[in-house]
User: What shape does this take?
Amino acid sequence: LLILFLYCLSLGGMKAQSNEWQIGVGISPTLSMSDPWYLILKKSLNTHITLRAGLGISSKKSRDYNQYIGPPLRRENGDTSMYFFNYNYEKITTRNDYRLFLGLERNFGVQNLRFFTSGNLYFGYLLSEEGLDEGIYYAYNPAPYTQFYDVGTFDRIQTWRGGFILSFGVGYDLFKNTSIAVEAGLNYFRNFEKFERQSFHVFFDDYDFIPPVDNAQFISSDHAPAKHRTYDLLFSLVNLVTLQYHW
Assistant: This one.
């Protein structure tokens, strides 16, 4: 309704202004699912109405790895044989985040200081994947005997978000073609999340180091996807901060 109202206001006269386009960067922890940065583009329709769009794309990947090789240890109960063990841990996480908002902005003010209100539609998609592998390996000496156990999971989470943003703010011209703007906003989002998990574990004993192994097990399972629907309604005093260039 606010977007329609702003559009009707723009029909009163298409009076051109000197700064037809604006491009800038914005930061908004409120509108982000993983990364706060946005590329902002604005087009002035007349002296008071501006079409605006914001795009945020991010991709992150991290790896956590740990390995521990234990010293030789003697077995209990006076047994003179020794055993060695090796522990490995690895976790790989990736996040791909895509966000877009489109709206209209109503400007009013004098000279270098201006105020504005806006109505925006918001769309977002976040894909998060995490793979975890954890294993331990035992070797006994002098008996030719080994034991290996490994477990792992792979999680895939997809989140779709849609909603609208009603905001108001203030802008100030720092230089002739450069300005900064800060806006507060009321945000309403509907979230749809789908969670999928695959898990496995491997276990084997080998007494003579000659294939095939004496006792081997490999179990893999796919868990039923879990789906969740939630909503967010929040007000932020600092919803978006933008530094922009006019031309």
About this structure: The radius of gyration is 29 Å. The chain is about 5% helix and 75% strand. The longest helix spans residues 2-10. Strands lie at 21-27, 37-44, 49-69, 73-74, 82-110, 113-141, 145-173, 178-206, 215-222, 226-246.
